[in-house]
Design goal:
This protein is mainly alpha-helical and about 230 residues long. About 65% of the residues lie in helices and about 5% in strands. The protein starts with 15 loop residues before the first helix and ends in a 5-residue tail after the last strand.
Length: about 230
C-alpha cells in the first residue's frame, strides 16, 4: 500500500516510576498514608504491582518534593509536622503564589474579580468558624486553583502547580497543632477582598505579605504558636 503522507502521532507512554509516584502521592494526600508513617518497599511493591527500582525512584522524587523523608538504610516515612519548617513553607507558598497573584489580578475581568471575591469570602468564613482544615482548603486549594486558572503566564503557572501541592500538604498536617493568628488572617483576607473589588494590585500584594508573613519594611509579624499534642 502507499506510504501515509502524514506522520503518525507519537503516543507518550508513562514510566512506571511516574505511575508509582502519582499513586503514592495520592495516598499521602488523601490520608491513606498518615504523617510519620513508614513506607515499606516490599509492601509498596505488592500494593502497586511494580518492581522495587521504579518505586525507589518514585520515593526519591517524592522526597525532593517534600512529601516523604528518606533516612539511613533507605528507610522512608511520610513527613511529620515541623514547627520550624512550616513557617518556611508558609513563606514559600506566599512567595510562589504571590507571583501568580501579581500576574493574574491585572488580567481579570470585573466578573472574574467577583468570582475571586466569592472565594475570598469562603476563606473569611472558614477563619470566622475557626475551621483550620476548611481554611487551608479554601485558601490553599480553591483560591490557588482560581489564580492558576486565570494566570496569563503559563510558565509561572506551571512552576506554581509543581511546587504548591507539597507546601499545602505540609502546612495542612501541621494545622492541627498550630494556633492560627485569627486577627492577622481576618485582616489580610479583608484587605485582599478590597483589592479584588478595586483591582488594586499594590493592596493585594501587601495583603498576601500579611497573610504569609512575607518580609515587609518596618513590620514584624507575630510568630505562630503551637499547641501541645493531646495524649
Amino acid at each position: 500500500m502507499p506510504a501515509p503522507t502524514t506522520r503518525r502521532p507519537v503516543v507518550k507512554r508513562r514510566l512506571l516510576k511516574d505511575e508509582a509516584h502519582d499513586a503514592i502521592q495520592a495516598a499521602i494526600l488523601d490520608g491513606t498514608f498518615a504523617p510519620g508513617e513508614k513506607l515499606d518497599d516490599n509492601a509498596l511493591t505488592q500494593w502497586l504491582g511494580i518492581s522495587r527500582s521504579p518505586i525507589r525512584e518514585a520515593l526519591n522524587l517524592l522526597a525532593s518534593e517534600g512529601f516523604v523523608e528518606i533516612q539511613a538504610q533507605s528507610s522512608t516515612s511520610v513527613v511529620s509536622p515541623d514547627p520550624e519548617q512550616v513557617e518556611q513553607d508558609a513563606q514559600a507558598y506566599g512567595a510562589v503564589v504571590g507571583g501568580v497573584l501579581r500576574l493574574t489580578l491585572p488580567a481579570l475581568s470585573a466578573a472574574e474579580r467577583a468570582e475571586g471575591v466569592a472565594l475570598i469570602d469562603g476563606c473569611l468564613a472558614a477563619v470566622q468558624r475557626r475551621d483550620r482544615r476548611g481554611y487551608i482548603e479554601a485558601a490553599g486549594v480553591h483560591f490557588f486553583e482560581f489564580l492558576l486558572g486565570h494566570c496569563p503566564n503559563r510558565v509561572v503557572a506551571g512552576i506554581a502547580r509543581g511546587a504548591v501541592p507539597s507546601l499545602v500538604f505540609r502546612i495542612r498536617i501541621a494545622s492541627e497543632l498550630r494556633i492560627p493568628n485569627g486577627e492577622l488572617l481576618r485582616s489580610g483576607w479583608t484587605r485582599m477582598r478590597d483589592a479584588f473589588e478595586t483591582a488594586d494590585l499594590m493592596l493585594a500584594d501587601r495583603s498576601f505579605a500579611e497573610l504569609y508573613r512575607m518580609p515587609v519594611p518596618g513590620v514584624e509579624w507575630t510568630p505562630a504558636r503551637w499547641e501541645t499534642p493531646a495524649k
